[in-house]
Amino acid sequence: MLHRGLVILILVFMYFQLNLLLSFSRSFENLDINDSDEAILSMIPAELHKFLSLKPTNSTQTHSNGSDDKIFHISTLNISYIKDRIAQYNLQQRVLNENSFQSLENNSIVIVVQIHDRINYLRYLIVSLAQAPGISHTLLIFSHDYYDEQMNSLVQSIDFCKVIQIFYPYSIQAHPKEFPGEDPKDCPRDMKKEHAVQKKCNNALSPDVHGHYREAKFTQTKHHWWWKANRVFKQLEVTRNHRGLIVMLEEDHYVGRDFIHTLRLMEKTSKESCSHCNVFSLGTYMKTYNYYANSKKVEISPWIGGKHNMGMAFNRSTWMQIVDCATFFCGYDDYNWDWSLQQVSEKCLKQKLHAMVAVAPRVFHIGECGFHHRKNNCRSNSVISRVQQVLKLSRRYFYPDRLILTYSTVPKKTEPSKGNGGWGDKRDHKLCMGMTVG
């Protein structure tokens, strides 16, 4: 009788545990949300609403494309002025709020945000960063490849940590009719090589692995990523000797409140239990999250470009190994920096990149529409609202006191034998190597 009662008690306990587990498994796609501006604002502290207000400047006109994910800029600034301003910013290396916060220490976290011109996404990234405890001890670096006064005003309004702006100097905006922009004498993407040679267009002899010629809008992101990393690790006065973690974010990311806490735990856990883990990934592209079951879990895996590129962090030691493979990175025929970096890891590095990945993400991708993503409903509100709801429903499971390691099984082949192309032009290889600081 006692045995039967014990069995029933165990079954009842398991039933309630299973239901509890399922109740906290949140599907990103199926959340019942209110994505109105009012609902989203209600989830954001009133003192941070200032980052969401639009403040047009005299030098830039703006208009919308019918969605609110991106603001298109009709710049009245001439190319010479843009180049001059970019050069001035990069020369001055001015740290905003420098006297309001403590100096950067050797173990401080540096956050680098690569941005283009999607200002609405950037506003929400800034709002999310502002709510993270510990943010005041970080340095926030914004790396621009598009000069715009409205974007500058937004970045320069940040008052919760130290901030510095750097500008990728070889942007399409600053070189619209010449390499690395779109030179009128370049070969069209789909022109056959025989025709290109006859026509004698600039890059006739260097199509990519798929027989296509370069497109500037695709090559820029890889160039910018490589320039930014070299700039931060080797050229900026404030970071060139820094040995702490560098976190890589993008303008269409959104961070959870405990992302700094979790990153610190990952760093501590790697020293204690995973000495070969040299990259920390805070984001994931999964659509279903279970913070009840997974808030303490991290997965150990070889670094895979398409999976572990969101909210990734590494230190100077890892970067010095990567930059030693500059020739491989710059010459690999793939316009994606992450796929190129994966090939560096697999075929060049002595110690491959191994990621410690947060199973319950602390960085989210809110850019549903943009470079690689085109959807019928390109409204940023929808995704932002879903992220807010996931974070709200899961907040009791944030700030874990420890991490639990799990190990992934890796397929034998993680990528096609040849790259995605778009990077066959010898001029791109040369520019990339020219930006390398060993």
UniProtKB/TrEMBL annotation:
Taxonomic superkingdom: Eukaryota
InterPro entries for the chain: GlcNAc_II, Nucleotide-diphossugar_trans
Major place of residence: Golgi
Reaction equations catalysed: an N(4)-{beta-D-GlcNAc-(1->2)-alpha-D-Man-(1->3)-[alpha-D-Man-(1->6)]-beta-D-Man-(1->4)-beta-D-GlcNAc-(1->4)-beta-D-GlcNAc}-L-asparaginyl-[protein] + UDP-N-acetyl-alpha-D-glucosamine = N(4)-{beta-D-GlcNAc-(1->2)-alpha-D-Man-(1->3)-[beta-D-GlcNAc-(1->2)-alpha-D-Man-(1->6)]-beta-D-Man-(1->4)-beta-D-GlcNAc-(1->4)-beta-D-GlcNAc}-L-asparaginyl-[protein] + UDP + H(+)
Residues binding Mn(2+), per UniProt: 252, 365
GO cellular component, one term: Golgi membrane
Keyword RNA-binding tagged: no
Bilayer topology term: Single-pass type II membrane protein
The keyword Manganese is annotated on this UniProt entry: yes
Positions of disulphide bridges: 187-201, 274-277, 325-348, 330-432, 369-378
Subcellular location: Golgi apparatus membrane
Cofactor: Mn(2+)
A Gene Ontology BP annotation from the UniProt entry: protein N-linked glycosylation
GO molecular function, one term: alpha-1,6-mannosylglycoprotein 2-beta-N-acetylglucosaminyltransferase activity
Binding site for substrate: 114-118, 145, 220-224
Pathway: Protein modification; protein glycosylation
EC code(s) of this entry: 2.4.1.143
Main EC class the enzyme belongs to: transferase
PANTHER family to which the protein is assigned, alphabetical: ALPHA-1,6-MANNOSYL-GLYCOPROTEIN 2-BETA-N-ACETYLGLUCOSAMINYLTRANSFERASE, BETA-1,2-N-ACETYLGLUCOSAMINYLTRANSFERASE II
Family: Belongs to the glycosyltransferase 16 (GT16) protein family.
Record-given protein name: Alpha-1,6-mannosyl-glycoprotein 2-beta-N-acetylglucosaminyltransferase
